[in-house]
Amino acid sequence: MLSTLRDFWRRHRRKAFVTVGVLGGGYFLYKLYDAHRRKLVDLERELADEREGERLIKAQMQAHFENIQRIADTTTLPHAMHHLSSRIAEELDLSQLLERLQNAKNQPNSLTHSEKIELWDRLKIISFTRMALSLWAMTMLSLYIRVQVNILGRHLYIDTARGFESSYFLENADMIDRDDEQKFLASADFLSNYGLPALMSDMQTAATEILKGKQLKDFFNSTVLHETIRQILDRFMSIGSPHHWVSYIMPDARFDRLATASSSDSKILSDVTKFDQLMVETGEVLTSAEFGTVVNISLKAVLDALVEDMGARSGGSLTSGMPLAKLLSLVTQMGPLLVYGPSKNRFIQIIQSDPEVEIFFTLLYANMPPS
């Protein structure tokens, strides 16, 4: 029996080894497959969790973005626009000039002909200056505040997310404290508090240059009026360096140094606060080509609406044309309407509802470069 088994083993030894090898290899492959399958299941679960996390982050960012826009429209912008309106009315007050002209009309001999011409010329220049300034300042202030609240909103959202240790935001900088936040938002009043005198001077220079050949008897229709205001704005924007107007809206001396400072500039960088960083980022947005496009779109939309409104208020007279002297009364009325608060200001609503403007601010909030 033993010899028989030995003979059997000798004859079938190779087959036995092969069979054992196949069974062992199969078992090993099965274990490899099972481990790989488990890894795939775990990976799919992780990917699903990441997708759900990304979906929640996007939903939260969208809700936060919409809330930031409401804050701008209901709190920040109304305050800043009211302050701007008061300052423009104070600096470009036409009441005394209009009163003198009315007195001259009631008492024809109270002024000489040359004095009357001089008063009418001043009224012409100041009326158009105030209207063009109000149009530009309202547009730029509303855009500036939107830039501010979107930058601030993104940073605050990032800070909140970092508080939950979200790896999605780990690369971002220090958190914003309450003082920096309030100081940053308060800078929206820089135009009214500090920038207005220089803005007024440059706008008046532009208006004087464009209107110098316009006589009180010249007929103005909608097309001529539109072209005149556009020329004043274009001339104003061409004064000085390409971004000279930024100095009317925000302080820039210190932030220019910060924006160009390198990591080796320890003396400058050691004093940098979160407020400084926010202002530098705001300045970079304002001087970007994308923001320049938004400014041009907004100014054109407001100008088109302004001329349309003036045509309606003229009872159709502006369509056929009217003397400049008669048009000036309408021009003086429109300046204050341009700087009404957002709830009553259709010009601000026109800016905010423009699709390209909306896309720009959506991308700004998401910290993505506009395409």
Tell me the Rg in angstroms. 34 Å
Beginning-to-end CA distance, first to last residue: 89 Å
- What is the total tally of β strands? 2
As residue ranges, the low-confidence spans are 165-173
Write the layout of secondary structure elements.
Layout: H1 2-91, H2 95-106, H3 113-163, H4 178-186, H5 190-211, E1 219-220, H6 222-237, H7 246-249, H8 253-260, H9 266-269, H10 274-286, H11 289-313, H12 317-320, E2 322-323, H13 324-338, H14 346-353, H15 355-365
Antiparallel strand pairs: 1-2
What does this structure look like?
Strands 1-2 form a two-stranded antiparallel ribbon. Residues 165-173 have low confidence and may be disordered. It is elongated, with a radius of gyration of 34 Å. Helix 3 packs across helix 11 (289-313), helix 8 (253-260) packs across helix 10 (274-286) and helix 11 (289-313) packs antiparallel against helix 14. The protein is mainly α. It has helices at 2-91, 95-106, 113-163, 178-186, 190-211, 222-237, 246-249, 253-260, 266-269, 274-286, 289-313, 317-320, 324-338, 346-353, 355-365; strands at 219-220, 322-323. The N and C termini lie far apart (89 Å). It is built from 15 helices and two strands.
